[in-house]
Amino acid sequence: MHDDLMARAKAWLAEDPDADTRAELAALIDAGDKAELEARFAGTLQFGTAGLRGELGAGPLRMNRSVVIRAAAGLAAYLKKQGTPHGDGNAGLVVIGYDARHKSADFARDTAAVMTGAGLRAAVLPRPLPTPVLAFAIRHLGAVAGVEVTASHNPPRDNGYKVYLGDGSQIVPPADAEIAAEIDAITSLDAVPRPDTGWETLGDDVLEAYLARTDAVLAQGSARTARTVYTAMHGVGKETLLAAFARAGFPAPALVAEQADPDPDFPTVAFPNPEEPGAMDLAFAKARETGPDLIIANDPDADRCAAAVKDGTDWRMLRGDEVGALLAAHLVARGAHGTFAESIVSSSLLGRIAEKAGLPYEETLTGFKWIARVEGLRYGYEEALGYCVDPQGVRDKDGITAALLITELASQLKEEGRTLLDLLDALAVEHGLHATDQLSVRVEDLSLIADAMRRLREQPPTELAGLPITRAEDLTRGTEKLPPTDGLRYTLDGARVIVRPSGTEPKLKCYLEVVVPVGDRTGLPAARAKAAGLLAQIKHDLSTAAGI
User: Fold this and answer.
1) Average pLDDT taken over every residue of the chain
2) N or C: where does the chain have the smaller number of CB atoms within 10 Å of the terminal CB?
3) Is 182 exposed, middle or buried (0-12, 13-18, 19+ CB in 10 A)?
4) Can 152 be counted among the known catalytic residues?
5) Local confidence band at 88 (pLDDT 50, 70, 90 cut-offs)
6) Annotated catalytic residue, options 152, 346, 347, 411
């Protein structure tokens, strides 16, 4: 077994085109580090509906140039089998974007080389730019596919590879499995042509076209007075967001200087995700100093948008579900038409808002690959800070246009002498207080997640927080409206719980919601206290039932 492991490692080393990972792997081989080699060669990084995502390093279970070249070759083979979109015999165009993480630019160039070598056309965005610019560019340029090299808000040691098809939305089954099969068929990197030239590096035209499209997000003549603090969270959002805000006529945001420019090491945060504890501390400090109306944060690839508001004497993050409801209410007030959609893990308040407005409403599985495909979509959101406010422009979550829309809403409310919190109160009185929380457990050993899911399936809880479970669904079987997925959904009297493994991180995620009726504004404090107590007890009981 040891000899076989060494042979596989040496064969991989012989093909590795990257000096960094070659040196890393050679050192492991020379040291005879069997445990670390087994961790890297016990399988291959699996290509799925999230594409690829993993820790950087040498070997088939890490993100590296060898893995990316194989993935690109598999995608190219898949695209060629699909034929040209217009039947005109012209080679299809693949657009490639990338963030500012370690190795992202290398992975983008490798992808362009592989596409060119396969007889497709390749065009690379001019520099690290927000993921929504890539999603926009696919349809804008009439491409057959797009690739974004990013690990979004994962830790600095990670990178990833996200694939879109020509409709501008991320891949879903069966395309993921078909691409994975083509990747598996790549036997040797030597068999993958990778010319040094032949692809195009795009200019700023595509970015200008994206920025021009952001005009469609805001209402003509709307208020543009809200003052903001902005953090790019060490990512690529700053230039694009500042350009979009200037174009819209908003006051220039006050920047969190320590996090304004791209830095793949994310030195000021434990995790570069606005939802993580401590990630927004510098933004809060800047707000205390400058007194804005709103704090805006993007994640590192700027497809997510977080908002924070002054609550009493200090600042707090709004939950993704709160921003989701605020944006929905704003669009309804502006007379929006079309379908409102969200993932099943997001708050049911969106459905209430859509129903009251007489608008179609859909629930989908988790991920914008599903939300973006909803027929007639006008607005979609997911509780993990993802918002699609201009589906005709970007069929994915977009942290730039979401920032524009929430700042427009804050401006309008400011002109009325109100705040975002006032509007949330009004929504609670109108539709009931919808309070959400999450139990999220990060693990080193993935088997712990499988154990927890198995425990819940074999010994399902009958009540949580003293509320009887009126319906328990194992989503692996699918439902009338949803395809199968690894998840469990519990419906309680006045509450809802969904449990699922994360698709992009080593986490078990449990999404909790309670709904408490509210008679008028005077009843809000008691309703909030009741909701907080129920959520805390549900979290405790669910943790016990899952053994986590």
Assistant:
1) 95
2) N
3) buried
4) yes
5) low
6) 152
